[in-house]
Specification:
85 residues; three-stranded antiparallel β-sheet; 3 helices; 34% helix; 20% strand; globular
């Protein structure tokens, strides 16, 4: 799941689900489960066309479901989280 679907697909060669600008943790988690999402890419950015930015949406999601996500990559501009069963 990511906001930059073409870029993530290009590098991962995996089906990519668009990370919607939704701040409701229940709705986001339902979509993650419904689409069998394995990883979530969260990009840190200065400006986001879609509001709220994915970092804010994911922070709310992670706070509501803390045991559901494991940080697997933490870079300056992005983070990747594995979705736990």
């Amino acid at each position: 799941m990511a906001r930059h679907v073409p870029t993530v697909f290009h590098y991962s060669h995996r089906k990519t689900i668009w990370f919607p600008p939704i701040s409701s943790p229940a709705i986001l988690m339902d979509g993650i489960r419904r689409h069998s999402v394995d990883y979530v890419v969260v990009v840190r950015r200065q400006y986001s066309y879609y509001l709220p930015p994915e970092a804010k949406c994911f922070a709310l999601l992670r706070r509501a479901y803390p045991a559901s996500f494991t940080l697997v990559e933490d870079k300056t501009d992005f983070q990747i989280f594995r979705v736990e069963p």
